[in-house]
Amino acid sequence: MSIKHGTAGKTLRNKLLALAVILLVVGIGGYLLIRVLVPFLAPAAPLVALFLVLRVLSSKEMAKAVRAVGKGYVGEVTVGRSLEQLPTGWRVFHDLDLGGENVDHLVIGPAGVFNVEVKNYSGKVIATPKGLYNKGRRQDEVVKQAWRQSHKLKEILGAEVKPILVFVGDRLDGDRAGKLPVKRPEELVRHLSSLPKVWEYGDFIAAVKKAEGLVK
């Protein structure tokens, strides 16, 4: 089993907690206002608090934020658990800070260094030599994000970093968007384990030590 560093989905988990705190503050605030300003309605204060929370959740912006963060968190945790099945000799780093954006998973092993970008989309995802599509729309930014993070990590680690896109969702057709490998979570470990060894132990350890400095 691989050795892991950090916690999968930590940043998104913290965002979910922050959203929960906002809802809690709204609920408690409404409850206290009723108790203090309209004492004769005190018995109904819990219902008013619940109404306010539901109103906030029903807004398009809040509902979209909760849904996006929740799906992202589920995706990162799902892939994180899959990566734990890599054999001994692999190191898995979760939720790394690149300054302004996060790497979902960084994997270092005999076959080299890989940054794993996770997306959890509804609807069919199609990966073709000409690009990536979801519900008929091109997803160029997702592809650019994976390559951009690879280039940043290469500068930090001093080693080539290969990106992999992993989709957790309804359906994936195809396994490559241009030159970028695209996988399902259940395919990822098999793919990485099948790759040939590319470097010696000393280079592997040097990359691992540098990666450890990125763990929050």
General description of the model:
It is a single chain. The protein has 216 residues and is α/β, with parallel strands linked by helices. The chain is built from six helices and eleven strands. The protein has helices spanning 10-37, 45-58, 60-83, 140-157, 185-194, 201-212; strands spanning 3-5, 91-97, 102-109, 112-119, 124-128, 131-134, 137-138, 161-167, 171-173, 176-177, 180-183. The strands form two sheets. The protein has a seven-stranded mixed β-sheet with strand order 1-2-3-4-8-11-10. A four-stranded mixed β-sheet has the order 7-6-5-9, covered by helices on one side. Helix 3 packs parallel to helix 5. The longest helix has 28 residues, at 10-37. The protein is elongated, with a radius of gyration of 21 Å. 31% of the residues are buried. The mean pLDDT is 89.
Task: Give a summary of the structure in a few sentences.
It is built from 6 helices and 11 strands.
Question: Helices, strands, pairings?
Answer:
Layout: E1 3-5, H1 10-37, H2 45-58, H3 60-83, E2 91-97, E3 102-109, E4 112-119, E5 124-128, E6 131-134, E7 137-138, H4 140-157, E8 161-167, E9 171-173, E10 176-177, E11 180-183, H5 185-194, H6 201-212
Parallel strand pairs: 1-2, 4-8, 5-9, 8-11
Antiparallel strand pairs: 2-3, 3-4, 5-6, 6-7, 10-11
Helix pairs in contact: 1-2, 1-3, 3-5
